[in-house]
Amino acid sequence: MxxxxxxxxxxxxxxxxxxxxxxxxxAARPLGCGRVLLVTDPGIARAGHAQRALDSxxxxxxxxxxxxxxxxxxxxxxxxxxxxxxxxxxxxxIVGLGGGSAMDCAKGINFLYTNxxxxxxxxxxxxxxxxxxxxxxxxxxxxxxxxxxxFALIVDPTTHQKMACGDPKALPRLAILDPQLTATAPxxxxxxxxxxxxxxAVETAASTRRSDASRRLSRRAWDLLSRSFEIVVGQASAQNxxxxxxxxxxxxxxxxHLAGAAIENSMLGAxxxxxxxxxxxxxxxxxxxxxxxxxxxxxxxxAGAENPYGDLGLAGEDLAGMLERFLRRSEAPTRLSSxxxxxxxxxxxxxxxxxxxxxxxNPRPVDQAALLGLYREAL
Length: 379
Known about the structure:
By secondary structure, the protein is α/β, with parallel strands linked by helices. The protein is 48% helix and 12% strand.
């Protein structure tokens, strides 16, 4: 069995280390797992990770059925398709294996399988009235930190609204962090996921909802992510990959988890509010959208007398410059115009951004006019 680590401020048990996926069955057995629904996506299945998970469960005498229909930015349709599999199989536990989308889909299935209704019924916090199945989360990217959070982000395909459906009962009981799994992610996914994790560390550090626990998590996450991101991005495809890259991948995965735990104890801010309309309208991967907007938001928030990012140990301009360097080194987009955004699009985008939940937790108050100004700076 791999190392079990305790993370102050988090209620999720963690197994961490290279090859930890092979411990899924032995870790699940003492929890009372008998019939598991494994929720993943086609890419993870092709990479062989889903079969490894199934083999580990089988060796532990745990029956399992796979649903590999999760997709990026999962919608209510993906959740409904997974729900049909769950209803036919009647699992007693769920395992979410993949990036944040697969884990969010697993949580969505859990909501509907145990509590009924539609995902729209759970938009908000604490709306599940019945117990939910236990969930084990196994991230394959160093990104969302969904394995440390009680929220499922599910898109309404009619309105394109990303619904944050949160409940303490949806929090995973166990997270298995195996940095080997992140090695098979395509380079573009590694970049987008890593930038997303960095944005989580930065925005939670300044959120109006931050606490002593979240501040410690944000700082530790930032330390791990900021020292390792450029190593992973620069060497991921190198032939001479070795211990330095392995260590950086481990740092990124643990840092993403800590940043996810920071979200659970804090909240995000304007960069995420600005990013969501870009993903909905232009299909921009979430991590790239939030990364593009983040330096502008950092400068905006530091325009007052105080630096709300002081816990990260950097002045505001230094932090914004470092974030811009990360974007350049990873060849991520730095201007909205490169996404196909035009000046005429900005008023409508700012209207949508102003309705995003995370906007209200930004350290400097934002309204539609302020968000429009930030879009214009980024154009």
